[in-house]
C-alpha cells in the first residue's frame, strides 16, 4: 500500500510538471489571475475590430463559431489550455522547422477559439517580424505596428486591436529591418512583462518564424513558457523536425507537435 501511495505521488508530481523548465519570472513573482476593474478598463479601451466571417474562412480561420470545422482546433485549444494551466504557463510560442507549415493559421484559430471561452483573456502577438502575416489573415491593419511597441515608441494600447471582449491582436504593418535584434532585446523582455502585468491575459500566443531559417525564434524563445511545433504532412522531413525539436527544447518546454494538413484526415490533427 505504501509503495502504491509513493508511486501515485510520483506520478502526480510528474503530471504537475515537475522537471519542466520553470521560467525565471515565475520563480520571482506570484501572478495575479483575478480580474480587476483597472484591467477591465484597459481591455475596453483597446480599439475593437470586426472581421468578415467569409474572408476569415478563405484564410482557413474557422473557430469564430463552434462547429465541425472548428472542432479539431477546439480540441487542440483545450489540450493546450489544460497542459498550460497544469504547469502554470501563460506564454505559448508557435513555431515550425520550416516555413509554410501552418503556424499562423493555427495561431489565429487558437486565438479565436480561446475567444469563445468567455472567462479567458488571450493575446495573439505576431512576432514573425521578418514576414508578418496575422494582419493579412484578419485583413486588418493596426494603426501602429508591433515593432513600435517592442521598441517602446508606441504603447501597446495604440497597436493592439480587440476582437470581442477578450482577445487582443498585436499585429504588424510591415516587416522589421532588424528583427533578431528586437527579439533578443532586453527591452522586449520588459515590454512583454509590462503587457502581461497590465492586461493579465490567461494566454499569450506568439506567432513566430520557423526555427531552421534564421535566428529569430532562437533569440526569442526564452520569453515563452512553452512551444507548439507545427509540422506539415508530406512536407516536413524527420531530420528537420528532430533538429527543430532539440533546438526548442534547449530554450523552453516543448508542449507538443501538431501534424497539419494531414491528407487522410479532414482537418489539422494533433500528433503529440
Ligand atoms: N490544414 C491546411 N490545409 C490546407 N492548407 C493549409 C492548412 N494550413 C495552412 N494552410 C495554408 O498553407 C499556407 C501557409 O500557412 P501559414 O501562413 O499558416 O503557415 P506559416 O507556417 O505561418 O507560414 P510562414 O512560415 O510563412 O509564416 C497558407 O496558404 C494556408 O492557408
Ligand atoms: Mg506564419
From TrEMBL:
Keywords tagged on the record: ATP-binding, Nucleotide-binding
InterPro entries noted in UniProt: Bact_polysacc_biosynth/exp (IPR050445), CobQ/CobB/MinD/ParA_Nub-bd_dom (IPR002586), P-loop_NTPase (IPR027417), Wzc-like_C (IPR005702)
Location of the CobQ/CobB/MinD/ParA nucleotide binding domain: 92-265
Gene3D superfamilies: P-loop containing nucleotide triphosphate hydrolases (3.40.50.300)
Domain of life according to the entry: Bacteria
Pfam families linked to this entry: CbiA
CDD domains reported in the protein's UniProt record: BY-kinase (cd05387)
MF-aspect GO terms: protein tyrosine kinase activity
GO cellular component: plasma membrane
PANTHER family (alphabetical): FERRIC ENTEROBACTIN TRANSPORT PROTEIN FEPE (PTHR32309:SF13), TYROSINE-PROTEIN KINASE (PTHR32309)
Protein name: CobQ/CobB/MinD/ParA family nucleotide binding protein
Species, as recorded: Rhodovulum steppense
Origin organism lineage: Bacteria, Pseudomonadati, Pseudomonadota, Alphaproteobacteria, Rhodobacterales
Amino acid at each position: 500500500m505504501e509503495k502504491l501511495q509513493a508511486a501515485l505521488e510520483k506520478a502526480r508530481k510528474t503530471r504537475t510538471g515537475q522537471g519542466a523548465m520553470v521560467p525565471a519570472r515565475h520563480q520571482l513573482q506570484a501572478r495575479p489571475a483575478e480580474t480587476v476593474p483597472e484591467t477591465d478598463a484597459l481591455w475596453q479601451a483597446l480599439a475593437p475590430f470586426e472581421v468578415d466571417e467569409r474572408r476569415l474562412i478563405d484564410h482557413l480561420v474557422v473557430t469564430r463559431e463552434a462547429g465541425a470545422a472548428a472542432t479539431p482546433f477546439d480540441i487542440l485549444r483545450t489540450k493546450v489550455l489544460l497542459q498550460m494551466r497544469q504547469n502554470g504557463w501563460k506564454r505559448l510560442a508557435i513555431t515550425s522547422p520550416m516555413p509554410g507549415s501552418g503556424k499562423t493559421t493555427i495561431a489565429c484559430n487558437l486565438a479565436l477559439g480561446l475567444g469563445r471561452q468567455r472567462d479567458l483573456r488571450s493575446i495573439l502577438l505576431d512576432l514573425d517580424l521578418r514576414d508578418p502575416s496575422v494582419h493579412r489573415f484578419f485583413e486588418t491593419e493596426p494603426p501602429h505596428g508591433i515593432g513600435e511597441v517592442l521598441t517602446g515608441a508606441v504603447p501597446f494600447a495604440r497597436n493592439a486591436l480587440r476582437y470581442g471582449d477578450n482577445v487582443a491582436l498585436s499585429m504588424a504593418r510591415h516587416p522589421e529591418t532588424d528583427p533578431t535584434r528586437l527579439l533578443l532585446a532586453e527591452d522586449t523582455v520588459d515590454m512583454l512583462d509590462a503587457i502581461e502585468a497590465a492586461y493579465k491575459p490567461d494566454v499569450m500566443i506568439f506567432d513566430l518564424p520557423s526555427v531552421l531559417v534564421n535566428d529569430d525564434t532562437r533569440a526569442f524563445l526564452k520569453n515563452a513558457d512553452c512551444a507548439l511545433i507545427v509540422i506539415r504532412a508530406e512536407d516536413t522531413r524527420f531530420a528537420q523536425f528532430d533538429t527543430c525539436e532539440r533546438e526548442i527544447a534547449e530554450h523552453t518546454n516543448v508542449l507538443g507537435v501538431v501534424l497539419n494538413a494531414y491528407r487522410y484526415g479532414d482537418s489539422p490533427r494533433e500528433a503529440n
